[in-house]
Amino acid sequence: MPPEPDPPYLRIVTEIRRRIADGELAPGGRVPSTRQIAKEWGVALATATKALTTLRLDGLVEGPEHELTRERIVRAAIEIADSEGLAALSMRGVAARLGVAAMSPYRHVGSKEDLVLLMADTAFGEKSYPADPPTGWRPRLELAARTLWALYRNHPWLTQTGPLTRPLLLPNLMVHAEWVLATLDGHGLDPTTVLDLHVLLYSYVQGIAASLEQEAQAEAATGLSEDEWMDRQSQALQAITTSPRYPTFTRITASLPNGYDLRLDELFEFGLGPLLDGIAGIIEDR
């Protein structure tokens, strides 16, 4: 059988490479635009874009560098992390998404590590707090917790940006810290207790939110949704519930006619109340 012909975008790439090699396209010269390629080769704009992106990734042509900014790089990186997870992020992938040469982002961001910090600072800056705060420490802490939860909900990869013991010193993250610290200040708590309670509230939100990213990674790795994965555990679950070793688990699960559905949003709300009750006890003891 004859070999399969190259896809259209590769034929375009090959021809433009030839023109560069033969000097028809001189260094610094203008390569055909996306629309010019689409018209000359009779292809869709998406195909023309793919051809130019391939050439840019190979370093053969330069993209519109005057339009490339740090803000565009960070936004593209956030989009990748939101859809594919932080593990999928690379500087080359960001360049491909923006349709520029592979090394171009380094002109604006020094490294992937620097990029992740910029991403996190941008994400944490998407929400702020009202100039006229609610009355009372408890509504203010509830607002802080739900604000952080919403941010992690929108960007699950944020939980992977650093351990609790190595806090990110980011201006926009400090906005959330300042809100909590100002809320706890003035209630007779010593400075260490104020900081401990702040870390406790933050770690509560971050801890539950970590499952958002882990679930996304598990679904990407297995191709199974949470419900589909659980359906495949029926045999293992039956082995546990019929074993005499776990009578309490068997009794409790048997009392649930529709089973137990773990919903992280509901778990977050359920746990927030007791956490704030505990903080109330500490404040009232002062």
Textual characterization of the structure:
Pfam families: GntR, TetR_C_1, TetR_N. Residues 67-127 form the HTH tetR-type domain. GO terms for molecular function: DNA-binding transcription factor activity; transcription cis-regulatory region binding. By secondary structure, this protein is mainly α. The chain has three domains: 8-57, Arc Repressor Mutant, subunit A (Orthogonal Bundle), CATH 1.10.10.10; 66-123, Arc Repressor Mutant, subunit A (Orthogonal Bundle); 137-285, Tetracycline Repressor, domain 2 (Orthogonal Bundle), CATH 1.10.357. Helices cover 63% and strands 0% of the residues. The chain contains 13 helices and no strands. The protein has helices at residues 8-21, 34-41, 45-57, 70-84, 91-98, 112-124, 137-154, 171-184, 191-222, 226-231, 234-241, 247-254, 264-285. Helix 8 (171-184) crosses helix 9. The longest helix has 32 residues, at 191-222. The chain is flat. The N and C termini lie far apart (85 Å). The model has no long low-confidence stretch (mean pLDDT 88).
CATH class of the largest domain equals Mainly Alpha
Instruction: Please report the distance between the alpha carbons of the first and last residues.
Output: 85 Å
What is the total number of structural domains?
3
The total of beta strands comes to 0
How many alpha or pi helices?
13
By CATH, the superfamily of the largest domain comes out as: Tetracycline Repressor, domain 2
CATH topology of the largest domain: Tetracycline Repressor, domain 2
Structural class: mainly alpha
| Beta-strand percentage range | under 5%
Supply Rg. 26 Å
The average pLDDT value, as a whole number, equals: 88
Main sheet overview: none
Topology as H/E string? HHHHHHHHHHHHH
- Outline the low-pLDDT stretches: none
Tell the overall outline.
Answer: flat
Helicity level, as a percent range?
A: 55-70%
CATH architecture annotation name of the largest domain: Orthogonal Bundle
